[in-house]
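Worked problem 6 (solution included).
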Amino acid sequence: MSIAGKVFVFVGPPGSGKGSVSSLCIKNLGWVQLSTGNLCRKHIAKQTETGKEIDFAIKSGKLVSDSLITNMVLDWFQKDFKDNHTVILDGYPRTIMQAQAFAELFEKRLFKSDLQIVRFVLSDEMIIARLSNRLVCENKDCQAVYSEKQGTDLAPKDIMKCDSCDGRIGRRPDDDMQAVAERLKVYHRHEQDLLDFYHKAGQIVHNVFVEKPLKEVFEDFKALVGLE
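Solution. The predicted structure is:
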């Protein structure tokens, strides 16, 4: 199988705005998003074989294996990635093992795609402040992200309803402060190794500084990757 297109890898901690920028890319540019977090939740909700394995690992207090995540991503590409599409990888690759496995797909020319790496830069203090106000659509096929803080670009029109699908919105269990702190520790353990891998591979890493309103971040992103 050989598929032509563009792939953007979004690198950044939880709450850094990867999902929000992805939504604007989908809405305004016609791109496609692959969020491994959303994909995992969808598999669990549908009780697929992959979903059962992921659910078992999570409930057992274990990390979901790199091979299981990579196989899930590969399956998505084979079924859903069409010629000349631009796809955003949000939350993958997250570790060196995942990055190496994904790089092998390019080396074997399974996907004849232009690969670009975009890093979202934000302080831990700002991330914690954002996630303490984050709301997410509970519809597994939507997962739109909002902020409980009124007056921001991400505030929903109705505090209990998704603007996109009318689904119910609420908090994710892993957005409580203790869980966020642990997720940030895990993220930072892997981030520098991941960036070093891309640098050694000759990949340019575009840094987007996201302590700004979402509209400004999106304009900066487009300019950085040559869309304006």
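Discussion: The CA atoms of residues 11 and 140 lie 22 Å apart.
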